[in-house]
């Protein structure tokens, strides 16, 4: 398990660098002579048809609805493994990250609402600053090298996983359009088949992928966001087989590099481009952008650190061994790096291109400030510990 965890963390930190490069390329493309080609690329019509069934979407929506379903499938696998045998497998292990994650979702949403209360067209974005991008956050931790304790990285990973669970629930409950009853009935049938295969001891991955694809199509047509099909399909994958192998871990091992180094960078390239043409400082203080940025920078650190600190003082949890309060505060700041999931929720919350551009501005500025602040605090904490030692 420790070897697998080390491999996971190594890939996540490398993925953070790739994500940053993809986002930077998107910014360059949008703000250069390549802008028309970039927009034309994202709007390429892509059609998949089988008989009377037709799915026709621009390339950008295939990325957001299709490729991101693979990301959510991997998230589902990680969540199931962590709950069954990992950092969320017992109350004692899960208590601290769970309390931190709840604070890290509730307080940023409250901060956003504070800046946007009474602005009806912005209210739907309340969940945007509630997310954490684990790849970027671990990438910043990686810059600190061995001086960032492994227990701090594990805690950050656990908080982010619970954060993802919360995001999945939020998407299912609050960002679902009008639904098709017939498609939902077909989806229910697909879910039943998936879990029946699990109960019957089917361990080959191919049948799950086949039924999971059918489920994705049905959920897409139902009006519920299609990425949720990835999570549901993942939860049906068996953790352990009778021959001692683990279909779930095998799939996770295969998918992780593809997701980290292809799916998420493509998503970042397609969604992180913010036009700087005519941008003024006042745009950063527009209620929508300010609410998102403040939610990530202020809400996350207050929610995550505040909830951990109060819970520890009440005796509900214990601070991890070898980790100082200053380091936990730095970690709380890093959870304000929202990026991937925040941009994803932003695309669900709004359809107006102007609002989406403002969302990108708030997410990117809030994430950059959170990352820099977290790095400086953790570096100061490391220096202070060294001096004290």
Structural summary, described in words:
The longest helix is centred in the C-terminal third of the chain and has 36 residues, at 353-388. The two termini are 31 Å apart. 72% of the residues lie in helices and 3% in strands. It has a two-stranded antiparallel ribbon. It has helices spanning 2-30, 35-42, 59-85, 91-116, 134-142, 150-174, 181-199, 205-222, 227-235, 247-271, 287-313, 325-334, 339-349, 353-388, and strands spanning 45-50, 53-58.
Give a quick summary of the entry.
The protein is mainly α and about 400 residues long. The chain has 14 helices and two strands; from the N terminus they run ααββαααααααααααα.
- Biggest sheet: strands, sense, closure? 2 strands, antiparallel
Number of helices: 14
What value does the average pLDDT take?
Answer: 86
Strand order of the largest sheet: 1-2
Radius of gyration: 21 Å
Helix content: over 70%
Q: Spell the H/E element sequence.
A: HHEEHHHHHHHHHHHH
Catalogue the unreliable spans.
none
List keywords for this structure.
389 residues; 14 helices; mainly alpha; single chain; 3% strand; 2 strands; two-stranded antiparallel sheet
